[in-house]
Amino acid sequence: MKPIRIFRHIDCEGPAYFQTLLEQQRIPYELVRIDAGEPVNSDLDSTSGLIFMGGDMSVNDPITWLDDEIALIKAAMASDIPVMGICLGSQLMAKAMGSRVYPGPCMELGWWPVNSLPTNERDSGWTNALPDTLMAFHWHGETFDLPSGASAIFGNDLYSNQGFVIGPHLALQFHLEMEAEVIKEWLDRYPEDLAKRCDQTHDKDMILEMTIQHITQLQGYAEHLLNHWLANIKK
């Protein structure tokens, strides 16, 4: 099997629990460290799937590698090579598909529910084993319009587009890949983001307490959705 290619955009937003799951299943992967200056590897013949992680930049920023990744997403989707995007990665996918990406009303940060949305029969396998409402981890201030031809699979009252699928491709605005240590690192590293959050009562201590309550269940959701995505990979 050709390796899964994972794009990391800042050093603390790697594949985290996704990496654990891939290693448990002995699925080969390679990590492209954009944050360390590594170039966007656009060779689609040497990979079986692409995963784009999060980052603190906007897809609308004038950054060359963002344009390179958007072009790569377009090429991969045209070749039926499965693509997954997390947070920034989902916004890259939306922009690659011609949708608008723009600032949301405030920063959705911490543990907030998302709802599984009804989808057509073609896409039902993505969420039919998941509860109607998932407690998910968020850290974003931008959103996107649902791309043409895509099916919305997650949303909530604050950000209506929290995830979509189209064919073998999956985009998630929230973070399924989290580990408790990573959440603590983000809280320590980006305290200024707490001032921008939608609910000012949702402070650092509450987020850490909720992490203890919800992280195991979140990782179960991560396993289900990653495995469903991997089922589309050509062995």
Tell me about this structure:
By secondary structure, the protein is an alpha/beta fold. It has one domain: 3-Layer(aba) Sandwich (Rossmann fold), CATH 3.40.50.880. Helix content is 31%, strand content 25%. The protein contains six helices and nine strands, in the order E-H-E-E-H-E-H-E-E-E-E-E-H-H-H. It has helices at 17-24, 64-78, 88-96, 180-189, 191-194, 204-230, and strands at 4-8, 29-33, 49-52, 83-86, 101-116, 133-144, 151-155, 163-166, 169-172. Helix 2 (64-78) packs across helix 3 (88-96) and helix 4 (180-189) crosses helix 6. The protein is globular, with a radius of gyration of 16 Å.
List the helices and strands and how they pair.
Layout: E1 4-8, H1 17-24, E2 29-33, E3 49-52, H2 64-78, E4 83-86, H3 88-96, E5 101-116, E6 133-144, E7 151-155, E8 163-166, E9 169-172, H4 180-189, H5 191-194, H6 204-230
Parallel strand pairs: 1-2, 1-3, 3-4, 4-9
Antiparallel strand pairs: 5-6, 5-7, 7-8, 8-9
Give the neighbour order of strands across the main sheet: 2-1-3-4-9-8-7-5-6
Order of SSEs: EHEEHEHEEEEEHHH
Structural class assignment: alpha/beta
Work out the strand percent. Answer: 25-35%
Q: What is the first-to-last residue Cα distance?
A: 5 Å
CATH class: Alpha Beta
CATH fold node name = Rossmann fold
Radius of gyration over alpha carbons?
16 Å
How is the biggest beta sheet arranged? 9 strands, mixed
Count of the domains: 1
Total beta-strand segments:
9
Fraction in helix: 25-40%
Give me the CATH superfamily: Class I glutamine amidotransferase (GATase) domain
- Second-tier CATH architecture: 3-Layer(aba) Sandwich
Overall 3D form: globular
Total helices: the number is: 6
Low-confidence stretches: none
Mean pLDDT over the residues: 94
